[in-house]
């Protein structure tokens, strides 16, 4: 991690930038923070950010933990496969789509039967329903409200809204504590406090939406590198030798560029290479719209697609 931070700092200096913003998942975030705390004079211009995609995966896992044995898994399994992996936070973003569709169906009758013009009106109705039954309160507090937070968090990235990002992450924190995600609970608080104390220059850039990367719409920076920088190379399982890992880390960007050039040579103009994340593709956007219909229709579409894949 020290090598990665030093290399990032070196590249920042070469390009004439003042600060280096380093984004990673929680495991690397913890290590990077300890390196910076141990050598505060070595990386005075480094700013650590917690990856939004991995944070959302952990948040979905928190909801899955709290909703265990509630019947949620059985409801989702009517449309989606691999539910045992989805609720713990894996199989992203299928799990996000599944939770959103469940909440849409739960709220459909309320929205159709009640004139609702503001989000506050819907929240008031949900609070009133939750006061009548403990089961309803469970589904409102542990599923519906977290899905609202989840969609707020996604919206913050898509619309490059930095204040909304911080607000959504703040609302996530109680669920990390309740589900026993202790590392996100601990380091999430530090992340929020550090983001509130950003240098003025960095804060101005974040307020302009430069905290996200994009192929087409805004997406989390840790999701961006999954289809570019980290697409064909990972360090897990290759070796335990520090020097080899150092060589791998320092040469990965060169290998990524070589792989891209070779693909262009093989495919001509590179038309067969996917340069965007599948969540940004038109097919996935259309799928999202189609699955908002009746659950029977969604189930039929899912079974039909499964049959075509098998054939």
Automatic annotation (TrEMBL):
Q: Where is this region: Disordered?
A: 282-311
Q: Which PANTHER family match?
A: CXC DOMAIN-CONTAINING PROTEIN-RELATED (PTHR47018), TESMIN_TSO1-LIKE CXC DOMAIN-CONTAINING PROTEIN (PTHR47018:SF1)
Top-rank lineage group of the source organism:
Eukaryota
Instruction: List the protein's name.
Output: Uncharacterized protein
